[in-house]
Design a protein that fits this description.
The protein is α/β, with parallel strands linked by helices. The chain has one domain: 3-Layer(aba) Sandwich (D-Maltodextrin-Binding Protein, domain 2), CATH 3.40.190. It has helices at residues 2-21, 37-52, 70-79, 112-119, 122-129, 172-180, 193-199, 209-214, 240-244, 248-283, 293-314, 316-326, and strands at 24-29, 57-62, 84-85, 136-146, 148-151, 165-168, 184-187, 204-207, 223-226, 231-239, 287-290. The strands form two sheets. The protein has a six-stranded mixed β-sheet with strand order 7-6-8-5-9-11. α2 (37-52) packs antiparallel against α10 (248-283) and α6 (172-180) crosses α11. It is globular and about 80 Å long. It binds (2S)-2-hydroxybutanedioic acid. Residues 31-32, 38, 88, 144, 169, 190, 207, 211 line the site of (2S)-2-hydroxybutanedioic acid.
């Protein structure tokens, strides 16, 4: 009897110790494939964050909209059902932070170097701060790349867009951009795009090559135009209450892992997109169109309307600050 009681007490102690040592779980949900810049960076973050916190934190990465689609993941973060996300900068306005749509303005960045002047400067930090009243902390910007335009007809001139139904992310700037070309924009979750293209619910879309290729969109799009007309990248965000409730040493470990994961993301982004484009080319399923300088200038001139139409929405001061940083001229 005495032995039984002792054993029970020992089992209880072991259980309590285990419970105490149970790692803090961070669910990191995203919508793209693992072999994309964001997918790889999320996996890298998991690896180094777990190492640096010495097993006290477990990061569970859920790629490819496995757990949540675009809109749902934002809600899940605010409710605390997931702790970390890296949504595209084009998806923050539904949260009430329209300023992030500055990143969607067509032709506003000519290069990653231009972009980094904003994301790695004071304006980038100021924009992340705007998330805090929404219960979200912005930790970093992760690059993806410059967008191509795809469809089942060649898109070269502005007239080619007329009446084309184009899938966009939930950004009013992207809506204006497509309307300026006389196309018909349609907001749709990323996870639904392949099927919508395949069945003809939409005719075309825009994305950096890494997303196009890893979702096999090129298999259901006859033409891809190398236009670099806009940028797509991410903000890595966490639930504020969760983040601020972490023990300080754990938060420091995670911050240092995030710093290195950000460097990793930004180092692989261009290479991944170049390789994805090479993959599209090699597949032979899609014809790749290069714009002449004059054609590109005509797109820019037409799409400039998206800048004028969204100046007040985004905030003229923010747009002008980016113009100054990047040297954008209408
Ligand atoms: C899209 O919806 O097209 C992108 O935001 C997907 C992503 O996260 O790169």
């Amino acid at each position: 009897m005495k032995l039984k009681a002792l054993l029970a007490a020992a089992a209880l102690t072991a259980f309590a110790t285990n419970a105490l040592a149970a790692p803090i779980v961070i669910k990191f949900s995203h919508v793209v494939a693992q072999n994309t810049p964001k997918g790889q960076a999320a996996d890298y973050f998991k690896k180094i964050a777990e190492e640096r916190t010495k097993g006290k934190v477990k990061i569970e990465v859920y790629p490819n909209s496995q757990l949540y689609k675009d809109k749902e993941e934002m809600e899940a973060l605010q409710l605390g059902a997931v702790q970390m996300l890296a949504p595209s900068l084009a998806k923050f306005a539904p949260l009430g932070v329209k300023e992030f749509e500055v990143f969607d303005l067509p032709f506003i960045f000519d290069s990653y170097a231009d972009l980094h002047k904003v994301t790695q400067g004071p304006l980038g930090a100021k924009l992340l701060k705007k998330l805090e009243p929404k219960g979200i902390v912005g930790l970093a910007y992760w690059d993806n790349g410059f967008k191509v335009m795809s469809a089942n007809k060649p898109l070269k001139t502005v007239d080619d867009f007329k009446g084309q139904k184009m899938r966009i992310q939930s950004s009013k700037v992207l809506d204006s951009q497509m309307r300026s070309m006389n196309a018909i924009p349609q907001v749709m979750a990323f996870s639904e795009v392949y099927q919508a293209l395949q069945t003809g619910v939409v005719n075309g879309t825009e994305n950096p090559p890494s997303n196009l290729y890893t979702q096999k969109m090129h298999e259901v799009q006859k033409y891809v135009t190398l236009s670099d007309h806009g940028y797509l990248g991410y903000a890595v965000i966490v639930n504020k209450k969760f983040w601020e409730g972490l023990p300080a040493d754990i938060r420091t470990g995670l911050e240092s892992a995030m710093k290195d994961a950000t460097k990793f993301a930004n180092d692989v982004a261009k290479k991944d997109n170049d390789e994805a484009l090479a993959g599209v080319r090699k597949s032979g399923k899609t014809q790749i169109i290069t714009l002449t300088a004059a054609e590109k200038a005509a797109w820019k001139k037409t799409m400039d309307k998206a800048h004028r139409d969204n100046m007040t929405r985004i905030g003229a001061d923010i747009v002008k600050e980016v113009y100054t940083a990047t040297g954008y001229k209408p």
